[in-house]
Specification:
- This protein is mostly helical and about 150 residues long.
- The longest helix is centred in the middle third of the chain and has 115 residues.
Length: about 150
Amino acid sequence: MPHQEEQTALQTPKKDLVKSARDFLGSAFGGKSTDLSAAIEEFTSEMTLVAEGLSEDQRILREQADLLSAQQTAFEDETLHKFHDVSVDVSELADKLSSLETKVDKLAKQAEKQQKKQSGLAAVFRQATVLVAIAAGAWVLTTLINFFK
């Protein structure tokens, strides 16, 4: 039986709470219970209308959030794709630049070799010119000596 006593003890504060709330509302409406019932019904109706409106607003906001999320995902995918394309382009340009640098180095080495060849060839021509000049001078000198003899 102690179990029933505990339930009764728990129900008593609930009944008192409901009664005090009802008394408070009753005194606020001048003690008319029919007005109180109508006020409670009207309040419940208005609160239901407000709750439905809030629910509809929440549904619309959820749809907008889903739409924005989908747009953001699409934008991120597009941006990532563009970034990948640019990255590939930059890699290709870096490869081309490296290839061009190699070609420029080869051409510079070839030009350097040609210049060395030309400067070597020029030295040979100078020496040959000097030898020809000496030989020509010797011939002119020999001719003059033979002429005046």
